[in-house]
Design goal:
This protein is mainly alpha-helical and 421 residues long. The protein has 2 domains: 283 residues, ABC transporter involved in vitamin B12 uptake, BtuC; 77 residues. It is 70% helix and 1% strand. The chain contains 16 helices and 2 strands. It has a two-stranded antiparallel ribbon with strand order 1-2. The N and C termini lie far apart (63 Å).
Length: 421
């Protein structure tokens, strides 16, 4: 007998291990570097120092906080499958809670009460949509209307006759305080004042984010990182996100779907209340009627722009905050923004043509040429145009990003316990 010897199969070559998310991190670094370089080029061409000044960056950071918190609240809710149009109303409840408690017991108590009032709004939305399966859009709109009426009534009852208060505003809230990084802040500001290409722009950005930063801003940044970690790096987050993707399948695996939806929507309201607290305690040091000015809806737009992820959401909120900060500095800064927009659209159009998406590429380049002509034939923009610039920028970016968006599969669909769909 002859034995056949089989040669063992060669072991497959071990693939090099790559850290999860490392490519995304580098992509973000590249994009941020490109953005700062583009800003520096435009600042040099136009001579508008406000594009990267520490004052503009600080204002942009502050204006981004309430939008980011509203958007993060929407992210929590929609990742569990519940659409939360009521974020605006929950922010309104937060501003009122901060004003009512803040002037009596200090800003930190006002912050806690604002978060609690927002969470109560989230609880109301959860009861209506999760327990009773009320249409989620209808419930959200109802909360917005209820919040406006309730705060108007309470303000008239609680603030009228109080020194510094009235039917539409609270007495002044004591300042909360800020944080400045000693040494780094002053050194960065010195570099920014030199007017060097790129280096001074980086100095202005560093000075803006290290000088007089409010405690609520720091809390908001921690909320963004904490939400990313909880929702994408823990079993809790996996279960919660499964409720927004396939709730009936999740239920068969033992996930308490209704419990997770309740948690997500209540947290959503609390985050919106935190955004409202910033407006009352930091931005104005007072509660005023109509203080939110639609920022809850803008937060939803930032969430959609960010593709229901914290990083993209923060970028969307930062975009609105930056353009809003520029329009506060007058038409000259917005006029320089036209050149920035033209260059960015032209670059985006070339990239689309490289990807063989001819229609989108041609449209982007045509719009870039029109914006460039607008910049070249004018020296300023009207105040009305400057005022709506943040909203136009948000719509423009949303339209450009719409092709890559994917909402949670079960977002907005009612979950009926015990039924199979």
């Amino acid at each position: 007998m002859s034995a056949t010897l089989e040669t063992p199969a060669a072991a497959p070559a071990e693939q090099p291990k790559r850290k999860l998310g490392s490519s995304k991190v580098w992509r973000i670094v590249y994009l941020l570097t490109l953005l700062v370089l583009l800003l520096s080029v435009v600042r040099t061409i136009t001579g508008v120092a406000n594009l990267t000044s520490s004052g503009t960056i600080a204002a942009a950071l502050g204006l981004s906080v309430p939008i980011a918190m509203a958007g993060l609240g929407g992210l929590w809710s929609e990742r569990s499958g519940v659409v939360n149009i009521g974020l605006e109303g929950m922010m309104i409840l937060g501003t009122f809670g901060a004003g009512w408690a803040g002037y009596q017991w200090g800003p930190w108590v006002g912050l806690v009460v604002a978060i609690g009032f927002g969470a109560l709004g989230g609880l109301l939305h959860a009861v209506a949509t999760v327990t009773f399966a009320v249409d989620q859009i209808v419930s959200g709109v109802a909360i917005n209307i209820l919040a406006v009426g309730l705060t108007q009534f309470l303000a008239a009852e609680l603030f009228t006759g109080v020194e510094g208060g009235g039917a539409t505003q609270s007495p002044r809230i004591p300042p909360m305080g800020t944080v400045t990084l000693p040494g780094i802040s002053s050194a960065a500001q010195w570099v920014a004042d030199q007017g060097w290409f790129l280096i001074s722009d980086i100095g202005g950005i560093i000075a803006g984010v290290t000088t007089d930063v409010s405690y609520i801003t720091i809390i908001a940044i921690l909320c963004l990182f904490g939400s990313w970690f909880l929702l994408w790096r823990t079993a809790f987050g996996l279960r919660l996100r499964s409720c927004g993707e396939a709730p009936y399948a999740a239920a068969t695996l033992g996930v308490k779907v209704m419990r997770y939806k309740y948690i997500a929507v209540i947290v959503s309201g609390a985050l919106a209340g935190l955004g409202g607290a910033y407006l009352a305690i930091v931005a104005a040091q007072i509660y005023r009627e109509g203080q939110t000015a639609g920022r809850g809806y803008i937060g939803l737009a930032a969430m959609i722009f960010g593709n229901w992820r914290p990083g993209g959401l923060a970028a969307g909120a930062g975009l609105f905050g930056y353009t809003d900060a520029l329009q506060l500095r007058g038409g000259g800064a917005v006029h320089a923004l036209l050149l920035l927009t033209a260059i960015a659209l032209a670059g985006y159009g070339v990239w689309l043509l490289y990807k063989r998406r001819a229609v989108g590429g041609i449209v982007s380049i045509v719009v870039a040429v029109l914006v460039a002509l607008w910049y070249a034939t004018t020296d300023d923009v009207p105040p009305q145009v400057a005022f709506v610039t943040p909203y136009v920028a948000t719509l423009l970016v949303l339209s450009l990003a719409s092709q890559r968006l994917r909402m949670p599969a079960a977002d907005g669909k009612p979950y009926l316990k015990g039924e199979e769909h």
